[in-house]
Design brief:
Elements: E1 3-7, E2 10-13, E3 18-25, E4 31-37, E5 44-49, E6 56-58, E7 66-71, E8 76-81, E9 90-97, E10 109-110, E11 114-119
Parallel strand pairs: 2-11
Antiparallel strand pairs: 1-3, 3-8, 4-5, 4-9, 5-6, 7-8, 9-10, 9-11
Length: 120
């Protein structure tokens, strides 16, 4: 049974940091991605990591501030977010897919999301 569960969201001041976690089951071999959706906007790509961990990709808006990683022993994917900005405020979703891609349609399994709010 596939499960995707995000955690770690919260309220943080601009310039601060948060680390999101995505606990998974049944997704061995999958690429994992993080996406986010702000109110009134479409869901957008944030980062992804291949199953091997050798390939990662970031949206330009988060490059050099966010880091995606995965712990195979814990079946968990992380998103370390540093130097947070108010425009990073969104619901963050974790997703699993078979292909290495930055579009929502490539991901089959999604979590329920976790809210990140960055105050100015």
């Amino acid at each position: 049974q596939v499960q995707v569960t995000e955690s770690g969201g919260g309220l943080v001041q601009a310039g601060g940091s948060l680390k999101l976690s995505c606990a998974t089951s049944g997704l061995s071999g999958y690429t994992m991605g993080w996406f986010r959706q702000a109110p009134g906007k479409e869901r957008e790509f944030v980062a992804h990591i291949s199953w091997s961990g050798s390939s990662t990709r970031y949206a330009d808006s988060v490059k050099d501030r966010f880091t995606i990683s995965r712990d195979y022993a814990k079946n968990t994917v992380y998103l370390q977010m540093n130097s947070l900005k108010p425009e990073d405020t969104a619901v963050y979703y974790c997703a699993g897919g078979w292909t290495i891609a930055d579009v929502t349609g490539a991901y089959k399994y999604w979590g329920q999301g976790t809210q990140v709010t960055v105050s100015s």
